[in-house]
TrEMBL record:
It comes from the Bacteria. This is MinD-like ATPase involved in chromosome partitioning or flagellar assembly. InterPro entries: P-loop_NTPase (IPR027417). Residues 246-267 are annotated as: Disordered. It comes from Geodermatophilus pulveris.
Amino acid sequence: MLVALCSAKGAPGVTTSGLALALSWPRPAVLAELDPAGGDVLAGYGRGELSAGGLADLELAARRGGLARHLDSQLLRLDSEGRARLLPGLADPAGARHVDWDRLAAVLATVEDGAVDVIADCGRLRAEHFPAAVVRRAAAVVLATGSTLRAVRAATQAIAELRGGEGRAGLVATLVIGPGEPYGEREIGEALGVQVIGSLPRDAKAASVLSDGAPAGRLFAQSALLRAARTVATRLDEFAAAHETRLAPPPAPVPSAATAIGDSRVR
Ligand SMILES: Nc1ncnc2c1ncn2[C@@H]1O[C@H](COP(=O)(O)OP(=O)(O)O)[C@@H](O)[C@H]1O
Ligand SMILES: [Mg+2]
């Protein structure tokens, strides 16, 4: 299952939230850094200690026809068990214009035959080379927004744009980062006209572990940010799964026994 995460202008926190969600996901998950402005996790959470070609290498493999086969070798572990993994983003944003987002989306939507969910950090909506094909293919699209008037205004525009695509209206939801500045989930949901998946509190200490690799400390897993991320992850998983089921094509009619046997004889 593929879940796309993006933001409107003036709403920082997408990558940090994506990481928090990948680490809290109820099943194995991959955080795919697809922000055309470039990847941040290797230098941030990874403190520059990890390296991988990530998206750039994968794109080269794709041109040789081996995208799905090479995905696994580009993933890095985000936790000790490897339940959460990372597809590192572009080191050089200039590479974004060469990425075939359509082809990548098709592979990310079916990682390990759907046993692994992918949370795609798509960065800012309307950015040049924004991975729109990934958004179109996703089971759910989550717009991260702040709760200031300025942020909610920008989010309203962004939601209208996201819902513009045919047949996508039910798939868009929002995630509030830092609620209560001054608006809360209910007001934001009403203003945007979409479901609010939940909120992640402002928690600078825990956020800096994720965004800048600050030492995690004993209490990191119990921080307000990570506790909220577990709730949001569960709700988002349910939201996306419900929509994925609705989107799935109806099952093909079951052939009668006679037809099936006849078919195999012909072959
Ligand atoms: N929930 C949060 N609470 C406090 N600070 C946060 C939170 N989420 C993100 N930040 C901070 O905001 C900054 C930008 O975050 P980042 O995730 O890189 O944004 P984006 O991916 O949207 O550019 C970082 O310094 C990060 O620590
Ligand atoms: Mg980012």
